[in-house]
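Q&A log
Question type: sequence-to-structure
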Amino acid sequence: MALENQIEIKGVTHAYQTDEGPLPVLEDLNISVPLNSFVAVVGPSGCGKSTLTRLIAGLMMPDEGEVRLHGEIIKSPKSTVGMAFQNPVLLEWRSILKNVLLPLEIVPNKLTSKERIERAMSLLSLVGLEGVEDKRPSELSGGMRQRASLCRALVHRPEVLILDEPFGALDAFTREDLWQIMHALRKEEAFTTLMITHDLRESVFLADQGVVLSGRPATAQYTLDVDLGHERTLEDLYTDQSVTMLAKLRREIQIAQGRSEKTEERS
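Response status: OK
Response body:
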């Protein structure tokens, strides 16, 4: 039986208006993200990946085509979508706990004040931030601030989580630690994820499927099914299977950058 799609991007074409005329960014883009799955989108710099996240979030509308969330065409921002970015953008005048609680002050919900705090504290504990809830963002490391940002994005139990290079500015060890935290969050929370990333290892370790966008105007050039199961460790990145998948993705990126010929058959 076919999986139900949580996110459907159908024939999306979009261009930005500039002084020199329209700048095409996306062209006839088609991507489907099954319910509760994790899809990583990679592609050349400037190919329109971040534009894609804004379209899914309802922050902008495509020139052509449609973006559907659970079958409904997105025409405005949705409270059922959570977002986390490379810059956590935590409010310095609020404690970490109050930063995490912010969406619950905005998104309509029936939780009591006590239930809101319990929800936030549960997420902070899950990502290893118990004991820092009263600290200010400036008192935490970059990795800890990003963990808090993930908690804030999930505190209102969104159906969809959009990640726009959330770990890109972190050092390699902190990044890998957060990859494992993402797996822990997926075990405890039910949400569908679309992540933008430049890190091919990250896409293989986290995602169920990797989508390579072509050069601008971007379309879906290649889709890779990541068959590593749900229980993954960092050692899985060094298996022959993972090395082969990484090589395929790297090859597709080279094609998208125009540095390699597209072949009739990809092996």
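Response note: The mean pLDDT is 90.
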